[in-house]
Batch of 2 targets.
Target 1
Amino acid sequence: MNVHWIVGVHPVAGALDNDPARVREVLVEQGARNARVQQLAERARTLGIPVHTRAREQLDRLAGNARHQGIAIHYEAPPTLDEAALEAAVDAAGQGALVLVLDGVTDPHNLGACLRSAAAAAATAVVVPKDRAAGLTPVARRASAGGAERVPLATVTNLARTLRELKQRGVWITGLAGDAPRTIYETDFTGPLALVLGSEGEGMRRLTREACDFLARIPMPGAMESLNVSVATGVVLFEALRQRGVAR
Ligand SMILES: C[S@@+](CC[C@H](N)C(=O)[O-])C[C@H]1O[C@@H](n2cnc3c(N)ncnc32)[C@H](O)[C@@H]1O
């Protein structure tokens, strides 16, 4: 069972609004005076979700490094996809398949921000390697502002193999790299598509890069070496949506 703690006013509000059936219980900090926290607790009671009061230390413990603001929920997340479920989701999405692949993003804030953008772009799935990458910790969930609950996450053991599988299913793979010869504005992002971004320090690994059909860069006229991976994710996802005529 994939049960997690989600903490903080905004993520909790998102879960109560979008997926109340997945919320098992709400914990509110003893003596919490934040009006938003009280409103959320009241909303949960109206939805028939048990609300309990707990000492601040208990919320601190389950939140890890994330800021809980006096409220936490026990949330039954949709299961992460394995390779087979990812392929089924891509097949079901057909021409509209839009997959975000993160090759070893290690900062949970960056993972959360990428999930937020992917959810906003209605991506089919986000793919991450099982090892040497940030997982869906409370910090990542909180940084995703509810995105982690709205876009399926696939964890795979061999990223290069997964990219080859996607290719066989008709998905075009574009890797994002600052040294690519062509820009994202010169790259065709219509049809089934996977966008691959590299890690904070090293970028894409060699085998991942070699598995890409195309490489594309986001032009940067300023004197900076690269963009933050979550910023690059947002830029390229929404350029893809623009080319695909998605303007809602
Ligand atoms: C912080 S950057 C990594 C920088 C790393 N030193 C490198 O050489 O790739 C993290 C990821 O964001 C993406 N990225 C950042 N800036 C980019 C740009 N201007 N064009 C394309 N991708 C970019 C790439 O996928 C990159 O691997």
Note: The CA atoms of residues 106 and 134 lie 4 Å apart.
Target 2
Amino acid sequence: MRSLVVYESMSGATKALAEEIAQRLGEVGPVRVVEVGALAAEGPVLGADVDLLVVGAPVHAFGMSRASTRLEATKEKSPVISATIGVREWLEDLTIKSGLRCATFDTKVLTPRLPGSAAKAIDKNLRSAGAVRACPPRTFSVNGKSGGLVDGELSAARAWAGTLIPSS
Ligand SMILES: Cc1cc2nc3c(=O)[nH]c(=O)nc-3n(C[C@H](O)[C@H](O)[C@H](O)COP(=O)(O)O)c2cc1C
């Protein structure tokens, strides 16, 4: 199984999860983990050789980030990792093969627990573009806007990635 793990991240929490997920998926086949702006710079068409697409992003203002929320994030921490575009903008131009398996995740603060999901929005967009769900969207928790992952979330992400591997 060839996997592509795409992430957007401001201060590194979502990136750390993406790398953990990629490491687990790498146990069963080739995997690439890439920041969304870097991938978008390669063009809007996703390689036909990908079997599983995993996309992760932080929740900003109850959903996917926008240019304005990413600017706001730079006030929390600068420089940010995803400094060019976010998943929202990448999805606008994305072309994928029909039937591509996809899984989405997001990061959001543990307390106060706020409504809203980036993962659900990404999932909806990917399925509109022709992807099929490998599993429901998943949320992982962080300690405040740039306080890093809540303890246990890296191992939870690893376990979640394991559920994306089809049993042979
Ligand atoms: C501008 C901005 C808006 C945010 N809005 C929300 C929100 O609506 N709900 C929430 O739970 N967390 C919110 N957060 C916290 C982010 O989800 C958190 O910073 C992110 O998960 C950290 O991941 P990263 O290190 O990969 O950027 C917001 C953060 C920023 C910077």
Note: The mean pLDDT is 96.
